[in-house]
Write a structure and sequence with these properties.
The chain is α+β, with helices and mostly antiparallel strands. It is built from eleven helices and nine strands.
Amino acid sequence: MKERLQELQQEAIVKIESANDLKELNDVRVAYLGKKGPITEVLRGMGKLSAEERPVMGALANEVREAIASSLEAKQALLEEAEVERKLASETIDVTLPGRPVKVGNHHPLTAVIEEIEDLFLRMGYCIAEGPEVEKDYYNFEALNLPKGHPARDMQDSFYITEEILLRTHTSPVQARTMEKNQGKGPIKIICPGKVYRRDNDDATHSHQFTQIEGLVIDENIRMSDLKGTLEVFAKKMFGEEREIRLRPSFFPFTEPSVEVDVSCHKCGGHGCNVCKGTGWIEILGAGMVHPNVLEMAGYDSKKYQGFAFGMGPERIAMLKYGVDDIRHFYTNDVRFLQQFKRA
């Protein structure tokens, strides 16, 4: 039995030394130290030994097991180290090579213009207000001095869901909701950016879904001069310090008096060209003093509070700012078009 144990130890060590990978090494471990291995088989015959021989053979068997286990651990460490070295050699990275450029996206031109306008008005002390795109007829029309049957409703051909629910045709309902929420107390100083919807034929200058940014200021002693000064700051910051504005009389049901606002042409400087159709001016937005009826419906005392409102289309602003001649370019997702507007 002693000779057999020593023989098994030598066999195991030879096979351990010849193992080329961790799988082969594990096979040797199972073969010699497993429950069905030859060492276990030899130990089962210890019952035939005398009482004096059993402890001697037991001690020898433990020595053989420990020697094989020690040899296995040493070989495993060598194989693992060799595997690490192999991986390092095969996965070496040349850090002197130039990095691969990562393609990154950029702001959509409309998003860039909207954020630029928001930043400008935030610096002027305004807050940003938002409201639902699916709106009640009351807030979209009636609270803005457009009762049912009013002819001005025909100017905004609407997407109605029910008789009283529609897709908002402008962001003015946000103003009506904000005034109602304030329960007749001032001041209010907000801009309302968002999507709006009208039943319109899509062409170079029209879309059935577009964006608007409207502004509202309500307080005591608000005058038309406050509106003009605000819009002058906007035009100069948006289009250049050399730009001028002019106000032309107009009509909107929710403002009185109402004006159309033009900015001097960026191409000819107001002298007249093909861009401004020879007038020297380009229309950019509508505005006016909040109609007393709108104030009264929202719970304000129109003799104590006054206000002004204005509304602009970021698409039109972007078209003028970047020289875009077709509004549909903003919505067709042509990467060649969008890549022209990368911001530094």
